[in-house]
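The instructor's notes for this session suggest beginning with a concrete chain rather than abstract definitions. Hand out the sequence below and ask the class to guess, before any prediction is shown, which regions might be ordered.
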Amino acid sequence: MPELDVARAVANARADNPRLAAICTPRYDEALREAPRPGPLCGVPYTLKDVWDVEGLPTTRGHAPWAERVPASSGAVHRAFEAAGAVLIGKTNLGDLGITPESQSYVGGVTRNPLDPSRTAGGSSGGAAAAVAAGMSAFDWGSDYGGSIRLPAAWCGLVGLRLSRSTWPSPPEGWLPPLPHIAWLSAMGPITRDLETCRRVLDAVPSLRVAEPPQPRFAGVLVVAPDAFSAGEWPGFAREIRAALDRAGLPSWPAPLPRPAQMDRVFVALIASHAKELLRGRGPRLGPVLSALTIGRLLGDRRMHPQAARVTLELAALRLLRHRDRAGAMRDALSLRARFEALWAAGFVLVSPTSGYPAPPHGRALGLRGMASFAKMGNVSDATALTVPFGHFPGGLPRGLQWLGPPGSERRLIELASRVVRAPVA
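After discussion, reveal the predicted structure:
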C-alpha cells in the first residue's frame, strides 16, 4: 500500500477539503490523537461514506433532515476497520439519499473532482472517491446500488470494487435508496488508488464476508461492446480492449447478452416499479420533492436537494406511465440475472466500459444518455464488479474498465485486471 500516514492525510484534508467538499464530517483532531492499534491496517488513514454508522458521529445519508441522527453504536463496517487498526479521518459526502449520480447535498455541499474541480466526482460515493484521489485517505468504503462505487472511482482515476451481496452482504444501514424489496441490488466495497491496496483492504476485514464459494475454472473474457445508447465518447472500446486482452494473453469473445440499452431498461423498470415504496418508506415525501423543484429553494426549504427530487419525480412518473407491473419487472430482472449466472458457471468473466463518458460538469450527469448502463449490469446480476483505470478520454480525463465476475471472484478479477493494466494501452 502506498505510504500515506494519518498526519499527511489530515494535512491534505485541511488544505483541500474546503475546495473539494469530499469530507462532510471530519474528525481530524481525534485521528491525530489516536494511539496506534495493532492490525493489518495499523495506522492507515481511511474514510467512510456517510451511510455507515459510527458511534458519536451523525449518519445523514446526505439528507438534511437527518443531520442530527447520531447512532448509539458503530455498525459492522466501522467495527471491522477499527479492529484492523485503521484510523478514521472522517465521513464522506454523497448525494441526498444516495439516489443521484453526483454528490450534491444540503449536508455536505457540492463535491468536486480533484482532477478537474469544474466537474463532478460522481455519485453517490463521490465524496469517497474525491477523498482518496486527493490523498485525504488511503481508502474509503462505499455502497453501490447502480454504479455508486464504480462511477466515482472511474471518474476520479481510481480502483473501485462492488462486492457481491451474496458473499459480502451489505448491512441494512447501507441500503440506499431505501427500497427493502429490492435491497439485493445494493452492495458495498472499497475505493482505492491501486489494486494492491484494494486487495489488502479486503484481506483485513474477513468478518464482513460470509461465504467464499468455489470458482469455476477460468474459460476466458467476454466483451460487452457499447451500442449507440451507451457508447458516449468511447465508441472504439471493443477494438481497444480486445487488443489489450490479446497483449495480456487472455482469450476473448463477444458477450452473448442483450444490448446495453436493453439491460438498462430492465434496471430502470425494476427501480421505477418500486417508486411508490420510495415515496412511502424512509425516503422523501412528495411535498418536499415538489417544493425542491419549485419555490422551495427561494424559501430556504432544505428538506430535499433538487437533484434528488428530480430523480424521485422521474421515477414516480415512469412508474405511473410505463412501469406499473412490478412482478413483470422483477421477472425480467431475474431472467437477465440468470443469463449472467450461466456465464459465470461456464467460467467466463466480462469486461465493459465503466461508463462511456468522462466526469461531466456539475449538474450534467443526469442528462447523459446511457451514462450508467454498464454499471447497472453489475447490480442486476449481483456480480463482483471492479473498475480500474484504462487510458484517457480526449482532453485527458480518465476512463474506467469494468470487470464483472461471479460472487466471490474478487481475487480473480484483481489478478486479471492487473495483467491487463500491465499491458500498455495502444
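Then share the key points. The first helix runs from residue 6 to 20. The CA atoms of residues 321 and 334 lie 23 Å apart.
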